[in-house]
Every structure is written in C-alpha cells, then in structure tokens.
Design goal:
five-stranded mixed beta sheet; 4 helices; alpha+beta; Cytidine deaminase; 132 residues
Length: 132
C-alpha cells in the first residue's frame, strides 16, 4: 500500500482531482507503479491499475506472472478496480492473483482476480469448439 500511495501522488488528474495509485508486484519482486492519467476528452483517460499493468508488459514482463497488485485512493471504503480494469486484470493476471484494495484511512480488502470478475470473458471465449 505504501508503493501504491507513492504512485497515487504521481497521478495526473486536473479535472476530477481524484488520485488513484497502483503498485504491481512481478514474479521477480520488482514493483511497477501506475497512476490514473486524465484527458480532457475523458475516454482516453487511463486508470492506475491499467497503467501499472501496461507499463510492466511494456518493460518486458510477461503476462500471467505477476504476484499481486495494490490499489489505493482517497475513498470512504477500500477502492475497487473499475469494470474495464477488472477485464484487463483477467487477461493479464492469474485468476488467483490477489488484488489489495485500500484507502488513505488504512481500510483494506483483498480479493482474487477471479472473485472480482466472475464469469469473465477470457481469451478462451474467443475459440469455438470444433464441431464434427
């Protein structure tokens, strides 16, 4: 959560002023920071979780080999990834990987990727079974 807080302070949020940070732990113990980055057009905005994941992939770390991700924001309860981030987590992380969600008050919750998006659309969903 400390690393996620460091990332949160780097957020670019001139419109919402709502900072979110994420810290992704890879299999080698390295931490990849992510923060939300807004855009005046809104749809190009990128969440902290996706920033951390995309950065790790761009830095050469293979999908599916991350250990955990911590996410923090200034919210009443533990912050949770949005639906788009949950879908990206399903694609790039193991189903059992832990997502640690917290807030600045010290509240936290932990769920697996699979728990955050049950019945997820996965790469396997793209393949039709051979019909004979």
């Amino acid at each position: 959560m400390r690393a996620a807080t460091v990332a949160m302070r780097r957020a670019y949020v001139p419109y919402s002023k709502f900072q979110v940070g994420a810290a992704l732990l890879d299999k080698d113990g390295a931490v990849h920071y992510g923060c939300n980055i807004e855009n005046a057009a809104y749809s190009p905005t990128n969440c902290a979780e996706r920033t951390a994941l995309f950065r790790a992939i761009a830095d050469g770390h293979p999908a599916g080999q991350f250990q955990a991700i911590a996410v923090i924001g200034d919210t009443d309860g533990p912050i949770a990834p949005c639906g788009v981030c949950r879908q990206v987590l399903v694609e790039l992380c193991a189903p059992e990987m832990m997502v640690i969600m917290g807030n600045l008050k010290g509240d936290w919750s932990i769920r697996s990727v699979a728990e955050l998006l049950p019945g997820a659309f996965t790469p396997l969903s793209l393949h039709k079974e051979e019909q004979g």
